[in-house]
Amino acid sequence: MTEYLKKNWLFILLLIDICFIILYPKFPLINVVGTYVAIRIEDFLIALTLVLWFFKNLKNILRYLSKTITQAFILFWIAGFLSVLAGVYTAYEVTPHLGFLHWLRRIEVMGLFFVAATTIKSRSQVKLILKTLIFVNLIVVLYGFGQIFLDFPVISTTNREFSKGLVLKLTPGARPNSTFAGHYDLAVYLSMILTFLGAYFFYFEGKKNSFKNYLQKGLMLISGVASFILLAFTAARLSFVATLGSLVIVLWLTGKKILIIGLVMLSIFAVGVVPELRHRLVATVTVNLIGGGGPKYNPPPGKVNIFTPQDATSVASKEAVIKETIESTGSATASAKEATISADIAPGEPINTTELGVYRSFNIRTDVEWPRALRAFSKNPISGTGYSSLTIATDNDFLRSLGETGLLGTLSLILIFWLIIKTYLKDLKSLANFERLFIISTIGSILAVLATGLFIDVLEASKIATIFWFILGVGWAVAKGYKREL
Which of 257, 383, 423, 430 is the most buried (most CB within 10 A)? Predict the structure, then answer.
């Protein structure tokens, strides 16, 4: 055991990193002036891992630098550095310390790709990674259900106040985030894990009917079904659809096409039993795609709320407006109906609260966040206006990349993904079944994450990004035949 630790200490540290990142909530450690995104314990843990990896591989650094994949990453980092300089000194839209911290965090999360790619040297290590992820995932899922049904503590960073490390509880109807920063992060994580569970469920070692295989299948089945149900409880529509798409691809490529029907049936069941997911999916179609939905708010003459022009509300405080919304009608039935209408609703918006949330969620992207990113891109198409110039969220990774890093950063990021997927596919057919399943799962995860990136800044979510680049690094090691080479 001691000898194994001496030879594989960096691999063990890598496993510890991933377990800690997944399970430890996002408690702030050091607050940063000008933002509520904090430096946390895992930042130091990852930094330590990267430094130790660098010195351990010092003799190989020049050889690594000569590899195309390394050069693509460096090109992306240089593009990000130039974008920060442009944002600070030409566009004047970036606070220096925020821009450079954003840039350093991208190097940090992507750095685990290199650690994994050059440290993993055998199938047994990849098996240990999978077993660890399955075990850790069971903890994540149990904790998520504990938040829903047992009032387990919630740590969130979805707004400035929550990000201070407040210990909260879910309110009725709220969506779980387990050990992650928000329900969207949890949903993306589950989409990656489910892709691997779907691929390896039908993988057998040794005797097909052995007790070991039955035990593994049982744990994977429990983990998979529970993960899928928890994914439904997050009501993250795009992640749910992206997960289905990645699982369909995995089942198709692994020759389990008939099971796609079962997957569709399970999805219909999940949508049927989780009202929040069902209502949000329906509202997405009826409100966002068709432009219809239920009744819209049409205030009677003289009706005021916080959206009414100032001259009409100068004598009414916000509290008075809310009170009037509730008490303006005579009958008890009408009053109850009015009370269910949001006090800040604008004319023409849906009255139904779920439809209103879906409507605003989409509109804030199309009317505010996405145009802001395109304006930033138009200001400086080559290098963008710099990291942090688009505030905390754009809710589209691709538009965010164009706005913050321009064509140089976006094209270099596309190059990285193209090189990785090309390497995965190059010898896919010649790989043994275990390795082939891992590559297929990793490709499915890439597709799920990038699809989610159409509406969520998933690559900027540090927990998710770290796990994602780690998995890609493991996939690289597998595709390269465990040669510990880039």
Answer: 383
CA distance 418 to 416: 5
Cα gap 233→187, rounded to integer Å: 9
Which residue in this structure is represented by tokens 């005579």?
330
Distances from the Cα of 49 to the Cα of 13, 73, 208, 476, angstroms: 7, 18, 39, 19
Of how many residues is the chain composed? Answer: 486
Question: How many separate helices (H) and strands (E) can be counted in the chain?
Answer: 19, 0
Backbone φ and ψ of 47, nearest 5°: -60, -40
Query: Is 325 buried (19+), middle (13-18) or exposed (0-12) by CB count in 10 A?
Result: buried
Residues 6 or more apart in contact with residue 437 via CB below 8 angstroms: 199, 200, 203, 254
CA distance 63 to 59: 8
Q: Please choose, from the candidates 221, 203, 218, 211, the residue with its C-alpha nearest in 3D space to the C-alpha of residue 123.
A: 203
Q: Worst-scoring range by mean pLDDT, 49-63, 70-84, 156-170?
A: 156-170
Hunting for tokens 């992650």 — which residue is that?
A: 180
Q: Taking 50 as the threshold, does the pLDDT of residue 140 lie above it?
A: yes
Give the 3-state secondary structure of residue 163: helix
Specify the residue for token string 């020759």: 255
Instruction: Give the mean pLDDT of 475-483.
Output: 94
Is the pLDDT at 191 greater than 90? The verdict is yes
Question: What are the helix (H) ranges across 67-210?
Answer: 68-89, 96-119, 123-149, 183-200
For the whole model, what pTM was predicted? 0.89
* One-character DSSP codes across 185-225: HHHHHHHHHHHHHHHHTT---SSTT-HHHHHHHHHHHHHHH
Q: Say whether pLDDT at 315 is over 70.
A: no
Per-domain boundaries in the chain: 7-284+376-479, 297-348
DSSP 175: P
- Cα–Cα distance for residue pair 163/43, rounded to 1 Å: 16
Measured in degrees and rounded to the nearest 5, phi and psi for residue 380 equal -150, 85
| Residue 121 neighbours by CB under 8 Å, 6+ apart | 477, 482, 484
3-class SS letters over 421-444: HHHHHHCHHHCCHHHHHHHHHHHH
Alpha carbon distance 281, 360 (integer Å): 15
Q: What is the dihedral of CA 100, 106, 111, 116, to 10 degrees?
A: 160
